[in-house]
Amino acid sequence: MVSAILFRPVSLGLSNARTYLFGAAFILGNLLLPQLCHFIPEGGKMLLPIYFFTLIGAYKFGIRVGLLTAICSPLLNCLLFGMPPVAVLPVLLIKSSLLAIAAAAVAGYTHKLSLLHVAFVVLAYQLAGGVAEWGLAGNVQAAIQDFTLGLPGILVQIAGGWLVLKLLAKYEF
Question: How many CB atoms neighbour CB 170 within 10 A?
Fold first, then answer.
């Protein structure tokens, strides 16, 4: 078991230019990664790439960077590339926002990083987001799709997110 390491999240205010700089960097990541994943059939649904940099941004840089990334990434992807489809945007915005809130809360409360912390964040937003999706769509199959088809993406978020955050842990921004 990988033990928790000390982790210092950075809380940036809305008047801080770095909030928008880091937000833009994570939004760019959330624009490029899905495009790469879409080369794989069902790659977006299977790998859930639009959530990856939201997780990183919110865990390391707090709720403002997280929500900026969570809201702008799906909207810009839809406007620029037509993916996700407009019909899916409400669910993606809800799940992305829940991810940003969960990641910022866990990092801010614990000041620690472990695989368990990241797994908790990912499972929390997926469960709450699945309930919201079920309520919006009225379809349990749609609500559990991220747990069935998207399991590889959930695992990538947990392991990859932990690895990237571990690398960022030593930097004070």
Answer: 9
